[in-house]
Specification:
Length: 390
């Protein structure tokens, strides 16, 4: 899939030229670069194979900068919990998930419609692209870690590419605004959630606004929470295994589902999401990769803990929408999915870290170049708006 430049003529020549760079490869797919002005230098980091931006072309790189890069690469390396229970799941359920994602949240629509005509809006974690183009007077670019979801967006004519929330593929200070809708709660460590916020601020101009929404602990419908599976503990840096956020290794767990055009022929069958709205390190990583979801489930006593924030949230993919005898069988065999014959569905669990009151603001507190200008609770989500100050 390629970045769609059919609307390029609507941008000024200067702005568009500042955006486009040479072609860069993501997930074995080539996308024209709209990426960072900084050169990327390969740095060997224990337990990581990522790239790290260090300095402008021609600049020297200090030891301190290399240490900073090492830390950044660690944060940008995708934990196994996210690979197995976020990335691969959304790849599998993409058409069905997309068919349930059509209603726009009023608060998000109000934010987008309040932006000046001609604004460039970056949607990080755009999903099926339901917010791309909402305000026809603005220009939109979206990215998402799920290639199948990005294909759905591209087929609809949107300007999109595969990209990671903690390493956004955009130049610093390019956008007038950015949004991250229901994305950060899929990141399994506090450092990664904080990094994602820093990236959203980085890619907008001074004075630019960033809207972030996340699922809340304080769910308005308590019956939904009862259907979630609490996990044993919060995930910390030790859970991170080898890997790059830009290139995901091939796996037998390449899940497939029915094309979206077949979803549209069965619109009455929409299924709602449960949310209305060293060597030692390598050994640990391999141990985590071999685990199934049962290894993460807590006891009944722990289930009632008031501070529980880590969950598996189920997604029911009807049998007729999944190739149960094909690739999905691999997911079932590897513990990434279960069969529910009573409901006639393959059940996939998605990892969530639900946010407590004030947690999202605390992650943004201390940023030298942004301030929180608004916060609100909407449809069981905590939301903030940041403004970039420098």
């Amino acid at each position: 899939m390629f970045f769609n430049v059919s609307r390029a003529s609507r941008l000024s020549g200067a702005n568009w030229e500042s955006l486009v760079l040479p072609v860069i490869e993501f997930s074995s797919v080539f996308h024209p670069g709209i990426f960072k002005t900084m050169r990327e230098i390969k740095v060997k980091v224990k337990g990581s194979s990522g790239l790290c931006t260090l300095a402008s072309d021609g600049d020297s790189v200090s030891v301190d900068e290399q240490k900073t890069c090492s830390s950044s690469s660690s944060v940008q390396s995708t934990p196994e919990i996210e690979k197995k229970y976020v990335h691969r799941v959304y790849d599998a359920i993409a058409p069905h998930f997309s068919s349930t994602r059509y209603a726009k949240w009023p608060k998000v629509a109000t934010f987008l419609n309040s932006l000046p005509a001609g604004s460039v809006i970056l949607d990080a974690g755009c999903g099926n692209g339901k917010y791309l183009g909402l305000n026809p007077e603005c220009f939109y670019m979206g990215c998402d870690i799920s290639a199948p979801l990005i294909k759905i967006c591209a087929d609809r004519g949107h300007e999109v590419l595969v990209g990671d929330a903690v390493n956004l593929p955009y130049r610093t200070g390019f956008g007038d605004a950015a949004i991250s809708i229901a994305v950060l709660h899929h990141l399994s460590t506090e450092n990664r959630r904080k990094k994602a916020i820093e990236e959203l601020v980085r890619v907008v101009k001074k004075g630019g606004l960033v809207l972030i929404t996340v699922w809340a602990v304080e769910q308005e419908d308590g019956s939904l929470v009862a259907k979630w599976t609490p996990l044993t503990q919060k995930y910390v840096e030790e859970w991170i295994g080898p890997g790059s956020p830009r290139v995901r290794s091939p796996s037998c767990i390449t899940l497939e589902s029915i094309p979206e055009n077949e979803e549209n022929n069965n619109s009455k069958e929409h299924v709602k999401d449960t949310k209305g709205n060293g060597d030692g390190e390598l050994s640990n990583a391999m141990d985590l990769a071999s685990r199934t979801e049962n290894d993460f489930i807590v006891s009944e006593d722990e289930r009632t803990a008031k501070n529980q924030q880590e969950y598996f949230v189920p997604w029911h993919l009807p049998y007729h929408r999944a190739e149960v005898s094909g690739a999905s069988a691999c997911a079932l065999a590897n513990g990434l999915a279960k069969k529910d014959d009573k409901k006639g569905a393959v059940v996939y669990n998605r990892y969530y870290h639900v946010f407590s009151e004030g947690e999202l603001e605390r992650l943004a507190t201390g940023m030298k170049n942004a301030v929180v200008v608004d916060r609100f609770f909407d449809k069981s989500n905590w939301c903030i708006i940041l403004e970039k100050t420098s």
